[in-house]
Amino acid sequence: MRLKITHRTEYHYDQPIRYGLQRLRLTPVSGPLQTVMDWKLTVEGAQEEVRFLDQFGNQTILVSIGGAPQTVSVLAEGEVDTADKAGVFGQHRGFAPLWLYQQDTPLTVRGEGVAALVESLSDGGADLDRLHQLKEAVGKRVAYSSGQTNVATTAEQAIAAGAGVCQDHAHVFCAAARALGFPARYVSGYLLMDGVVEQVASHAWAEAHVPRLGWVAFDAANGISADERYVTVATGRDYRDAMPISGILLGQAEERLEVRITVEQ
Predict the structure, then answer these.
(1) N- to C-terminal Cα distance for the chain?
(2) Where would I find the H helices in the chain?
(3) Whole-angstrom Cα distance, residue 76 to residue 65?
(4) What pLDDT does 183 receive?
(5) Which Gene3D superfamilies does the record match to this protein (predicted)?
(6) Are 136 and 123 in contact (CB under 8 A)?
(7) Using an 8 Å Cβ cutoff, are 4 and 79 in contact?
């Protein structure tokens, strides 16, 4: 399936900025499940400083901003051919070792909630069966509800609240999969939704590393493994490693953010 994606992010500032630095992870790369046919990243109101592959293999660009009040616009757009392989990405790539994906992070620290979730699963069974069972358990334990959590919400907090968004589902799945002994990683990207072209945010899901298969994707928010409707942009241990745009801003300027995304076949 060929997907056409546009992702526009605009930052509006009300006074001069002393200095700002933003890290952009908005460029997908070709791999076993997708082929990037055409992709362009256009930045206005900021200056590109450097681009590189980070430790997780993500295409990363650093841009700096400063000076008079302005609008910084970041437009990522292009076309990607995708394939349905039941979510199986394959063997591990990148500079980060697999053991790194078994470690807790501030957003995926394992506590009583994760322990209870893991204990609710049936004992034994094949690795894939257990992970699919975990995917379903996460979806039932954390109901999809926007406005209940934010980007700083941890896996334990989402479980306690019993509600969250795709980011929270991915964090809970990663924490629980690690508790089961699987390396797990957070994935950010895009999803072609039925009957919906314009979206308010990018999508997130998780992958677990299974012996002999490699990385396998699980989307607990939608109760499925990733198929041809998914485009991967960045991966990491949690949201902070894979967030589309992150950075720092020095000064007293108030920032207003606008995001517009379209995903269509």
Answers:
(1) 7
(2) 112-119, 127-141, 155-161, 166-179, 239-242
(3) 18
(4) 98
(5) 3.10.620.30
(6) no
(7) yes
Distance from the Cα of residue 56 to its chain's centroid:
13
Q: Which domains does the chain have, with CATH numbers?
A: 2-82+245-264 (2.60.40.2250), 88-242 (3.10.620.30)
Distance, in Å, from the CA atom of 252 to the CA atom of 202, rounded to the nearest integer, reads 28
Collapse the DSSP code of 51 into the 3-class scheme (helix H, G, I; strand E, B; otherwise coil) and give the result: strand
- The dihedral through the CA atoms of 152, 156, 160, 165 has a sign that is positive
State pLDDT tens for residues 127-160: 999 999 999 999 999 999 998 999 999 999 999 9
190, 183 in Cβ contact below 8 A?
A: no
Distance CA 135, CA 137 (A): 5
Distance CA 195, CA 57 (A): 32
